[in-house]
Write a structure and sequence with these properties.
The protein is α/β, with parallel strands linked by helices and about 230 residues long. The chain has a single domain, classed as Rossmann fold. The longest helix has 28 residues.
Length: about 230
């Protein structure tokens, strides 16, 4: 039973969602806003972003091509001017392409996955990393895949891009451990995110609760049927 006097740890925090216009982004945005967070949502499609802010009126929306570092740095300047530094960054940019065995791992698919999964993550974290270090509870989170445990030839491009993203987050977490011990990074691991949007929203919102950060890097499996 929820304590009506309980104030969520995320209340008053500024949290930015990159790639926010998916079903998961809508669910997380809604949960964060309901918990009292200041929510910033970023997407590349203006119409979809308006659809999100229509559903979550308290969220501030920004259109940005996260694959371009110059646009992301401009976004960071605008966010800082209008909202101040952020306390959390949730990276939801993704996508899947594959199949056809190893011979089917095309350069076009690799470029798509590399850009969406890794380049956007590199850009957003580099632009906002100082905020997460300076916050007294900086949080970074991404969504990864169980396929990294047993990658298949048909999913080699995808698994390689996800593995690179996890390595990037691990590097950031090691930096937190050295110079920002109150900050932490979380990798949510799923087989498929469809149907787990509410669970992800609950987990992200709880990242600022007391005791949520146990070490600089956490791996949290999200499994259907759990709460």
């Amino acid at each position: 039973m929820t304590d009506p006097g309980h104030r969520p740890g995320v209340a008053g925090r500024t949290v930015l969602l990159a790639g926010a216009t998916s079903a998961a982004g809508v669910a997380v945005s809604r949960a964060l806003a309901a918990a009292g967070a200041r929510v910033i949502v970023v997407g590349s499609n203006a119409d979809r972003l308006r659809g999100l802010t229509d559903q979550v009126p308290d969220a501030a929306g920004y259109v940005c091509d996260l694959a371009r570092f110059d646009e992301v740095t401009a976004l960071a300047q605008k966010v800082h001017a209008e909202h101040g530094p952020i306390d959390g960054l949730l990276h939801l940019v993704g996508g899947w392409r594959g199949g056809g065995g190893l011979a089917g791992q095309t350069d076009e698919d690799w470029d798509f996955l590399h850009t969406r999964v890794l380049t956007t993550l590199r850009n957003t974290t580099r632009a906002f990393i100082d905020d997460l270090h300076a916050s007294d509870a900086g949080r970074l989170a991404i969504v990864s895949s169980v396929t990294l445990e047993h990658p298949t030839p048909g999913g080699a491009n995808y698994a390689a891009a996800k593995a690179a993203a996890e390595t990037w987050v691990s590097a950031i977490a090691n930096g937190f451990a050295k110079s920002a011990p109150s900050a932490s990074a979380t990798i949510f691991v799923v087989r498929a995110l469809d149907g787990l949007e509410s669970r992800l929203a609950t987990e992200v919102t709880a990242l600022w609760d007391a005791g949520a950060a146990s070490g600089s890097l956490r791996r949290v499996p999200l499994v259907p049927g759990t709460s």
